[in-house]
């Protein structure tokens, strides 16, 4: 009888941080990696070792042990040690897809520089798979993926090897780690282990794999030390009368031996099933403070700093590429599996928060410098508005203006003064022959102005200041606000939204829900027998109105706590901006906002990657999940990248968020999770997650910081359209993003911007710049993921996508793959696809 081949892959899964700190991890790494490198160097019989598919751990190690670099390079180049292609193993449903791409870009670059990157998209432990990973892998030259979580048993019951397709149709060959990444962790050859542990696992894998294909047995675990005895164990197993032949190998070699049937049914899109492996679909609202901070940092890098740097270099300045890439590496440390999930110790979460704040400080500093250099190149007293999106757009933009005079306005633009403060000039210390002397500095006015600005494309506009009083934001007596699209009125506790295009009305438009959370840092859990608490009626605090913007401030009580809600309508905006403020004083609960509407279709759409993902409001396995052996209840609670869309009887409702990552759509409401408050890292036997605690299950780790006590603020936008138009949904997402910046070149205030008070050189080439500039305007049918400088060349890379079902024409530029190497040029972008354009501005 021919024996079935089993590829045994020795590996370490290396958590960057978790219930331990990154410092703990690196100290352990110093011991394990030194031992591993020396062992591999001395034992040629040990063919190869996989170090978790992430480059960052090797980078950290070599920063402390540079004398081991030559040995590491030799082992990596020789295929003995497998690192990359990731920088860090990130949870791909919690950040911008752009971060996933950059993580692979920097990881693959780093690993290749050390001798070679693993050519497999390795996903051993992340909580669900982004729909576009097959396409992203493909365009990095990775044709294979090995992953654990997110599949239904029925999808792989006939073959654990499958073709995985992205929404744009691109595919990779994939293998499902059905028993996770550790079934061979304690591989042994004794009779007890073989009979009761090894053979049952292999027999199950064999039953789910066609006879002409080998089996994969990952043999590792979290932070494990290399099993030096594996060659001997493999030889001893092969000497036994077993139906299997064991080969000590790696993932690349295994995938090369698997024969994939290209005509077989494909598994498509995102993988978020919770049948065999836990997905923790409510982890997306855990430590939401960190997720909102991360979202803000991502936006500042991808939508502000990078395109502003492109503009600066084109105008004669310098692109701070090394600074940006260092920020990205720090960011990807915060994106590592577990980290951004928030399922960590308080110590670790504090380190993540400080890491993100550090990145934000650097981004803010460079944004300040680059804005100032451009403004100085234009001339004195410049007031400038930047459009960092290469699209034509008209938008309400906020300016902060400092003047000695009280009356001021921007010339030739519609505007409203929303706030003005008089600021003391303070005192200046002057050094004289008689010693130091304090000199009183005259005061000045700080004014916040909203103005409607039309941009032609990627570039900037400048404005003159003139004496005069703009219209002001005034408090209204009436209980109604409106713009061209909506009217919001308040009558005796009833909040009414009217869509003016057709007169459709929503009464008692939204409220809040508070439920006890009996879960842990991984999962929300309803408390047995506890009923939700809903907010009481709203009370009107005040309304304000102007030509450009109107606001309504409301108050309500939820479970004994006050929530202040501001609703803002702006001229020309189809999105209603909403913010909530709450001083959280309660523990172990979850707060959601519920928007009412009849959802007859029973579906929702969450954006992910470069298109919308269609989801069912009720999982078909929900009624029988225990009988079917699900490890978690398949609740229809979903992730979103930037927005969610729900078709209703009266149109389509969308919510656009920045860091709020979790929603649930039901027959009569769209529920957006604001936050969870829970103080334990792990807990056994949850209502929706039976059995052991996730992560460490033999120690209670309390996380009081995760209760999120104190002031919390949430901002998002609501849109109510008459019909679903995918392009319009993405236009609204563009409008809600912060791709427009303003700046005033002035000498009155030196603290508004981060580095304003320091002396800075002016690049020699950045002089006599024009007062208005447009470098690039894309079709409104194309959307932008990134605009950056290429790695290693002087060109720029513009990543565009087409989320619609139509074909869109591409501009006539060369094209590159995700490694930023020239590739075949396409003239059109098909449905749900993306392209990387090489730009020479």
TrEMBL record:
Residues 5-259 form the Glycoside hydrolase family 38 N-terminal domain. GO terms for molecular function: alpha-mannosidase activity; carbohydrate binding. Signal peptide: none annotated. Residues 503-678 form the Glycosyl hydrolase family 38 C-terminal domain. It comes from the Bacteria. GO terms for biological process: mannose metabolic process; oligosaccharide catabolic process. CDD domains: GH38N_AMII_EcMngB_like. Belongs to the glycosyl hydrolase 38 family. This is Alpha-mannosidase. It comes from Lactococcus protaetiae.
